[in-house]
Amino acid sequence: MPGAPGVGDPYYPGDGNGGYDVSHYDIRLTYTPESDRLSGTTTILATPTAELSSFNLDFALDIRWVRVNNHPARVERDAADPTEVVVTPKAALREGEPVTVVVRYAGTPSEVAVDGFTAWKRTATGALAVDEPHIAEWWFPSNDHPTDKATYDVSVEVPDDVVALSNGVLEGTGTQRAGWTRWNWRSTEPQATYLAFLAIGDYDVRHSTAPSGLPVVNAYDTALGDLRPSAEASVERTPEVVEFLESLFGPYPFEAQGGVVTRDLGFALENQTRSVYDAGFFSRGTNLSVVVHENAHQWFGDSVALGKWSDIWLNEGFASYAEFLWSEHSGEGTAAELAQYLYDSIPAGDEFWQVLPGDPGPENQFHSAVYDRGALAVHALRTAVGDEVFFEILRTWLDAKRGGHGTIEEFVELAERLSGRQLDEVFEVWLFTKGKPQAGPNGAEGAEARAAVAEPESYREISFTHEQLAKRR
């Protein structure tokens, strides 16, 4: 039978593909910054979950050929959705028997539009393959949904004066022809397709070792100018931030740490092991809030992926709340103070309260309410169950789901089981009911939290984070 063209995501029905699981992507590319020309080969190791007469890949660039188990395969584009590539192998694929798929392709990603836009960002010195929820289609064929994670080898050949950055550990660089250098990156932990990234251009790269022994790779666009010191003063503290988050969430789940700062993004994204930040986050000085936010995603969103894109609160609500926890840790206002200030600062009639963090719809997936009201929902849960149970819920969730994915429904079930309480008044009110909740995130203790000083500095940083994220499209 043919594999399904999607996994049935309620927001993006065409995302992912049915009938197989990918275990590994080997992506081998050559990129020319002057022309934005990308060419290469991706080898996919997968296992069919049913007998398949054909299967789909998600991809937008021109395909030269596909081989399945070393035999040439027929390739067709779905007329209704050109990112759906239908591959028909010479012989049907048997359930449970490993399959090797090799795709050879080339194109100019910045000239390829999907649904009216391109997520690939051509820059003055290279390119950025960084975006959410979709980016893979512009640089490698995949089963593009967070529920099918895989390990990765990413090898990119670029001119000698250009850097090629990606996820995981740098296994080395090498030269096969004059004037070109190949950068080889390896990710050994399961990773979602949208969290795989490329940052190609003129970067200063800094290598160090975290106290934990993990390699740290940070990179800074050489054109950051007077933003460079504040960017470094923030991103170089990544191991310190990770140590703090480990004290709350449990062991760091990956093989490397770091960050990339660029001028050309307009937002920040939690690419696995190495978040990418727009330089604008550091225009007013150091900004540890955004570093905390993106590194909290290494647990909430990366290690434990969302089960469907409507579960975005599991990513953004907890990463935003981690900013509150860092503020409390740093002595710049308790989580209760920040939550109460945020609740009080937004009028009841504001459209903010009409967006539901538990199901915002694809048009509001990155609305500030998903972040801010999402963080208030997390604090309301903490208020309802108490600190001991709250952090037990978080650590249990992250441990049980590590390397996989989860849904809001599963998280609610766990929270109710560990707390021994029925928590509808928290989750229904804060995630799924329009309008400003009558009781604040601190419950009966809200009046005490209201005595906090006006507008904590860390809240101004959080607001700026959302302002930048609003420019994603």
Description:
This protein has 473 residues and is of the alpha+beta class. The two termini are 38 Å apart. It has helices at residues 228-235, 238-249, 288-296, 313-330, 335-345, 368-385, 387-401, 408-419, 424-432, 446-449, 457-469; strands at residues 20-32, 37-48, 55-58, 62-68, 71-72, 74-77, 84-88, 99-107, 121-122, 127-129, 150-159, 163-165, 169-174, 180-191, 198-201, 203-209, 215-221, 257-262, 275-278, 305-306, 405-406. The protein folds into two domains: 1-201, Immunoglobulin-like, CATH 2.60.40; 305-469, Neutral Protease, domain 2.
Keywords:
2 domains, globular, alpha+beta, Immunoglobulin-like, EC 3.4.11.2, 27% helix, disordered C terminus, metallopeptidase activity, 4-stranded antiparallel β-sheet, 8-stranded mixed β-sheet, 11 helices, zinc ion binding, Neutral Protease, domain 2, metalloprotease, 26% strand, 473 residues, single chain
User: What share of the residues lie within helices?
Assistant: 25-40%
Biggest β-sheet, characterized? 8 strands, mixed
CATH architecture of the largest domain: Sandwich
| Rg, nearest Å | 22 Å
List the helices and strands and how they pair.
Elements: E1 20-32, E2 37-48, E3 55-58, E4 62-68, E5 71-72, E6 74-77, E7 84-88, E8 99-107, E9 121-122, E10 127-129, E11 150-159, E12 163-165, E13 169-174, E14 180-191, E15 198-201, E16 203-209, E17 215-221, H1 228-235, H2 238-249, E18 257-262, E19 275-278, H3 288-296, E20 305-306, H4 313-330, H5 335-345, H6 368-385, H7 387-401, E21 405-406, H8 408-419, H9 424-432, H10 446-449, H11 457-469
Parallel strand pairs: 1-11, 17-18, 18-19, 20-21
Antiparallel strand pairs: 1-2, 2-8, 3-7, 4-5, 4-8, 6-7, 9-10, 10-15, 11-14, 12-15, 13-14, 16-17
Helix pairs in contact: 2-3, 3-4, 4-5, 4-6, 5-6, 6-7, 6-9, 7-8
